Amino acid sequence: MSKLNNPFVIYGYKGAEYFCDREEDTNKLIAALHNERNITLIAPRRVGKTGLIKHVFNRIEQLDPKTKCFYLDIFSTKNLEQMVQLMARTILGRLDSTPQAALRRIQEFFGSLRPTVSFDPLTGLPSVSLDIRPTEEEQTLKRIFEYMRQSGYRCYVAIDEFQQILAYSNKGIEATLRSYIQFLPNVYFIFAGSMQHLMEEMFTSANRPFFQSSQIMLLNNVDQAKYHAFANRFFQPQGRTISEENFAYLYHHVDGITWYIQSILNRIYQYTDHPIDPHFIDQIIRELVNEQEPVFQNYYASLTEIQASLLTAIAKEKIVTSPLSHQFISTYQLKATSSVRTALKALIDRQMVYAKPEGYVVYDRFFALWLTRL
């Protein structure tokens, strides 16, 4: 890969050189998959689970060419049919040695679903769409898994935002998936999700199909000292550094969350001649928050009055341990406890508020900073 103009990557995975630390997490994931264990990976959005998965898959494919890795983000899927179509586009044709072999096997497995195959002119990789009729989704999913089972490859499949299956109208989807997955001797899964309470309930409740079916792994923030060293590795060729104290100021301003740190560092790197001090860091954060203002205004306009008041109060407090307490409600002149409870649930469901072990926070840290100005 050619050298990046800006080494602080905000979107996508650009290789190990631009990936910060997570050696322990990487090794833990690789060891679990190598030893035939499925993984449930739980982390709030923007902490870096997608980057970690792609980093792990990149390393695995370098070590073992007989292993195939597939990443699916099902966050935008609304039903099982859309998920199956995404799996078809991502997986089918990628387990065959030649385009001719791919076409033959796809026809053999999915001929009745009138598969449409197109090939990327640059990579030569196929993309397959299927004509799935209503009620055929489960059978089609079973065929995709069978296609993988018979491929002769060891396969790793990451399904990101896995809790999305709970929103599907298809009944018994958890049990169906579990019944198919447990009989695949050469296919192992990473079930990744950002809604901790839903993911934990799915995988730790004794009455749920996925109970004790995988190793649970919670993803924490990258260590501050290691992140600081990573940042300076790229700033030093510019003839400047960020001090330990100033990096701590930046890191804690956004609670150590990877995407926000990367966004700030990316923008700092752009201004090559500017010394990196708290005043400049604040200026960069203001710039990033201001750019998002139209989006934040739309978010805010979509809220009810009590939801807006509660969200703003949480933003101003930074973290709230007891949002239903009399003191918190009276301080911010919120309505009755029952109204606050209803509003809090709505904000959590919309992923505007996140429940950490220490308390409740506004999910989007830049949105929280915007709210504190109101």
Structure commentary:
- It is a single chain.
- The mean pLDDT is 95.
- Strand 5, helix 6 and strand 6 (187-193) form a beta-alpha-beta unit.
- This protein has three domains: 22-218, P-loop containing nucleotide triphosphate hydrolases (Rossmann fold, 3-Layer(aba) Sandwich), CATH 3.40.50.300; 224-291; 294-371, Arc Repressor Mutant, subunit A (Orthogonal Bundle).
- The protein is built from 16 helices and nine strands.
- The chain has helices at 23-34, 49-63, 80-91, 99-110, 137-149, 173-181, 196-204, 224-235, 244-253, 258-270, 278-291, 293-301, 305-317, 326-331, 337-349, 365-371; strands at 39-42, 67-73, 116-119, 126-129, 154-160, 187-193, 215-218, 353-356, 359-362.
- It has a five-stranded parallel beta sheet, with helices on both faces. A two-stranded antiparallel sheet has the order 3-4. A two-stranded antiparallel ribbon has the order 8-9.
- It is of the alpha/beta class.
